[in-house]
Write a structure and sequence with these properties.
This is XRE family transcriptional regulator. It comes from Gordonia prachuapensis. By secondary structure, this protein is an alpha+beta fold. 19% of the residues lie in helices and 26% in strands. The protein has four helices and seven strands.
Length: 221
């Protein structure tokens, strides 16, 4: 008898990861009925229930559930609440994909806004690669370029988390008491509250992507 090669899944107590992948037929616009239809059908199938089983569980007719799943009718609030209860999900889960406006920023190569940072005065060049509004404003992606005109001395400290991704050149970057030699393809993820900055510009020019994720209550300048 062959050994069971099914991997063992351990319950770590951590919350389930957020599902990022969107199936091919998921609605992407503002059709509310289509969004509800897609979510109800997807959640029902994931729960392993037939249309008849689901209809019986939530107390509606099989024909009505079929119309809902085919976007042929508009649900009342009470029906939505019963569907959500039967699927064991928040009511808001049934609206996923129905949002009309979701902001996106496209920045062409070399067309990012030049911004002033602490290192600007010593030759550091900062190119902002885009910025969303509202709650998404807390993410700041910047392309940093260091040349022969750049000095090494600026130190930085700020709330949030920062990721550096090296694109060109070589530098020694400090964070707290530690030093890291960064080459193209290297990535450094750091706590922004720790004092950090370049210690040695080994090979110029240097280009790296710096993405800072600020806390929810932080207002960027």
């Amino acid at each position: 008898m062959s050994a069971d090669t099914t991997p063992t899944v351990r319950d770590t107590g951590d919350p389930a990861p957020v599902q990022r992948e969107v199936v091919g037929d998921a609605p992407t616009g503002g059709d509310l009925e289509a969004a509800i239809a897609h979510q109800v059908r997807l959640l029902r199938r994931n729960a392993g229930m037939s249309v008849a089983d689901m209809a019986a569980k939530v107390g509606i007719s099989k024909a009505m559930l079929s119309k809902i799943e085919n976007a042929q009718t508009s649900c009342s609030l009470s029906t939505l609440a019963r569907l959500a209860a039967g699927l064991d999900v928040p009511v808001t889960s049934l609206f996923r994909g129905a949002d009309v406006d979701r902001e996106a920023i496209f920045t062409e190569a070399g067309k990012g806004a030049v911004i002033v940072g602490r290192g600007t005065r010593v030759g550091h060049h900062y190119e902002l690669l885009g910025g969303l509004r509202g709650q998404h404003k807390r993410l700041e992606p910047v392309l940093v370029t260091l040349t022969d005109d750049s000095e090494v001395f600026p130190r930085f400290q700020h709330p949030g988390t920062e990721m550096l991704y090296m694109l060109e050149g070589v530098m020694v970057y400090g964070h707290g008491k530690a030093e890291y030699t960064l080459r193209p393809g290297d990535c450094l993820l750091l706590d922004g509250e720790g004092i950090h900055g370049p210690h040695d510009l080994v090979r110029l020019p240097i280009r790296f992507l710096a993405v800072t994720a600020y806390p929810d209550n932080h207002e960027t300048e």
